[in-house]
Amino acid sequence: MKVFQQLWHGGNLYYGLTGIPWSVSTAPSYSGIVGSPMTEGQIEELIEAFAGKLGQPGECTVKKFVNHVDHVAYVSSWENLDANIAHLEAVTGASLMRTERPEQGAMICVDWSAGLEVVAPLPDNNPAGDALRDRLASHGEGVVAVIYGVENLEEHKANLEAKGYQMGPLMGGQRDQFWTEILLRERFGPAIMGTWTVFSEIDYEDHLIHYVDVREGARVA
Prior knowledge:
Blueprint: H1 2-9, E1 22-23, E2 36-37, H2 40-54, E3 62-63, E4 68-75, H3 81-92, E5 97-101, E6 106-111, E7 116-121, H4 130-139, E8 142-149, H5 153-162, E9 171-172, E10 182-192, E11 195-205
Parallel strand pairs: 1-2, 4-7, 8-11
Antiparallel strand pairs: 3-11, 4-8, 5-6, 6-7, 9-10, 10-11
């Protein structure tokens, strides 16, 4: 209760149109105003209202990249996968989670918070991994795809198809058993300068992408 009072009060109380404001704390604000104290019942009602809102399905705060690069994918040979991931993690500080996806014929290693992905065809000659094997044979290891976030994937598909571009089938659309903090929807688009392009709507839980506030002018020499 005391924690909730502190959070709700925040030290910011001002006189309103109806006089002294209600407050869950009896501590004076920065301006010296002491709020009219709320009863325990009123406070509990507030807590229940917040808890009920947060607990509703679909109400979890999520974010997605729009008209912005979502992440970059590299392709690696199976033989070099461990060394390539170790090097990428050492250089960037990322931590890639490995997920074997037989239906895609690939090992997918990704750190969503860092925007980095490494894919490698599984060593079992699964036909689902042939596109990755062909890419390695023609281009070698390196950046294979740029995943670009859009606001509405189906509208973007329609716009591109109206211009004569072909779009791939929908991938994802359901919360994955391994990637529980995102909801992924993607379609392959036309390649750009020899690099695969994937258009995406990826909903990230609010805590997953880390931003920090930078004061204007703080880094000006």
